[in-house]
């Protein structure tokens, strides 16, 4: 039997890290939401125990380095499943872009195999397991607007979620290694966005408040290494976005709009400057 799961990209409306844990992992304080830019992950149950990953991109590893593969093996070994799976990833989310594509694929595999292998696990149980693959997997298991804390394991789904919005995304032509950026954080010099105000903006559906307080504590760290991120932010503002923010550890920058017409104007302008630009809706 085969199931196809949509694996949506995420953005960080707010990203802060108040401190580093003794093992080197950051403590997170983030507001995340999913967008209509997605991979499609087809998972087929197999009677033999092999896990095989195929994808429509040549540059993605198909072996144990693939987060989708890691998620399948983790589920299989943890619950002593005597079956395997074929995982076919139809990739649309740019890789190493700060949009959580690998984590979302891994979460999609957990949801699909939970169904195919009749494990009956709750989303909370899948999220707990997913943390072993990557800190963004627990969020991606839910894929709803959420406040995420801890090492990524505390996912509080927000009710109400972000109201339907338009986003323009622009990815400079660089790939960012998340572990490299996390190693370079100097906690003494971080500028912390006001995550409480971001949460308030979502809760009150106060778009101006949300837009004003969206921010990412890691922007300066990534921009020092990749000045292209700063240039894209400047361009977004120049073309009419009130605010443009880096997602994750970058390099993708996004701007949020309520009106499709305004988003369209910024998108039409930015794509003359940046070849990887997207106009998408929030989910
Ligand atoms: P992070 O969640 O670490 O911030 P990201 O969202 O910036 O990452 P991803 O697209 O998830 O970026 O890719 C990060 C790394 O994970 C890349 O080096 C990529 O080769 C590897 N990777 C492993 N599996 C996948 C997958 N299924 N899709 C995308 N990247 C994957």
UniProtKB/TrEMBL annotation:
Catalytic activity: 4-CDP-2-C-methyl-D-erythritol + ATP = 4-CDP-2-C-methyl-D-erythritol 2-phosphate + ADP + H(+)
Domain GHMP kinase C-terminal: 199-274
The EC number(s) this enzyme carries: 2.7.1.148
Active site: 10, 136
PANTHER family registered for this protein in UniProt: 4-DIPHOSPHOCYTIDYL-2-C-METHYL-D-ERYTHRITOL KINASE, CHLOROPLASTIC
Amino-acid positions noted as binding ATP in the UniProt annotation, renumbered to this chain: 94-104
Gene Ontology terms describing biological process: isopentenyl diphosphate biosynthetic process, methylerythritol 4-phosphate pathway; terpenoid biosynthetic process
Protein name: 4-diphosphocytidyl-2-C-methyl-D-erythritol kinase
